[in-house]
Amino acid sequence: MATTRKWVILIPVIIGIAGLIVLKKNSLPPVQEERQEQATLVRVIEVPQLTVIPKATGHGTVRPSRTWDAVAEIKGKIAQKHPRLQKGAILESGTLILKIDPADYELAIAQAEADIQATRAQLDELQAKAVNTQASLKIEQAALVLNQKELERKRQLVGKGGISRSDLESQERSLLSQKQSVQGQINTLNLFPSQKALLEAQLARHNATLATAQRNLAHTEIRLPFTSRIAEVNFEQDQYVREGSVLVIADDLDRAEIEVQIPINQMSNLLSSNRTIDILNLNPAETQQEIGLTAQATLQENGVIASWDARFARLSDTLDPKTRTVGVIVEVDKPYANVIPGKRPPLVKGLFVQVVIAGKPQPDSLVIPRAALHENRLYVVNKEQRLEIRTVQPIMQQAEYVTINKALKPGEQVIVSDLIPAVEGMLLKPVPDPASQDQLVNAATGGPAL
């Protein structure tokens, strides 16, 4: 019985093994198919040749181009204050904003005028004395001539015994006395020039005192030199102010300026000229035309978007050694013009705005997206639809694009999508990316952002 059971178990196993052997002998060998290369899908653009407008962007705070401090040049009590003279008020050019009590300075003018009149009277008196003394001198000189003749006559008579010696001596004393009178008149005339010079000096001093008093009187009235917005008022009606006190600070409304910090490498892309510029003798208009920079200031805040045309004014005086940036100052004319409440505010002091500075157009530039450049290498699709890694030399780098040398030709396809791994000669399936193409063209030519 045990033997029979063993055979029952082994028979199925033997049959299975025999079947496997038969199937193996009758099976056909596997068919091997040739392996096909898989093309990688990539987005591409055609390299355009454009007239590029280089730009640089910065942010800065608006400030007035001119600020005027009304400094008291005299002392006194504030006698008059403009009723609208308050912080934030806008007043026209020439407006009388305050007046210092002029009484003391009017009295000083009256005193100086009186001193001038008195000195002029003394000069007139001196002139009259000179004329009178000159006439008296002529009379005394005539009398001297007569005395000399009389002395000669008596000398002749003394020899003949006609007169006594005492009469002759008396005549000689009379002649000496007359000479003394003539000399006194001459001495008086000799003093007139110095007396006149003294009086003329006094007159000049009184005239200077009068001019100072008149100048001080003019300084009692303070007027705005230009249309201004009042930034600060530091006095009140009837307050006594001292000389040198800053009474009012006013900002010019005719022009605003903004200083922005631009990286040095970006400024080198913007500033280009074909001639040497003499910095010490710059003509602002000619320099601006030669450099060819334009600018635009834009405010974007709380849903409000407003723009103002600006112009390059000057470079700042220093270079920031930490950020390696240079300060660029742009100006905006009429910052308070064309105001639309709720939509277009005035360009007031303290606004934080974006400034875009554009340089001269650079024609015939080959342009690629900055993201397509991989350490001076480009991924190019060649005519066989394969990857070609090409080394290029960037000429100008901007935030969104790069201009390159002639290592590419216009119309060649450059890969703008990520390609990992990038193997030279790999098969590609390029797909045009019109959105990236349009965005590149607009960024390079200064068109609207897409």
Automatic annotation (TrEMBL):
TM helices/strands, residue ranges: 7-23
Matching InterPro entries: MdtA-like_C
GO molecular function annotation: efflux transmembrane transporter activity
Keywords for the protein's UniProt record, in alphabetical order: Coiled coil, Membrane, Transmembrane, Transmembrane helix
Domain Multidrug resistance protein MdtA-like C-terminal permuted SH3: 366-419
Any coiled-coil regions, as ranges: 109-143, 196-223
A single GO cellular-component term on record: efflux pump complex
Record protein name field: Efflux RND transporter periplasmic adaptor subunit
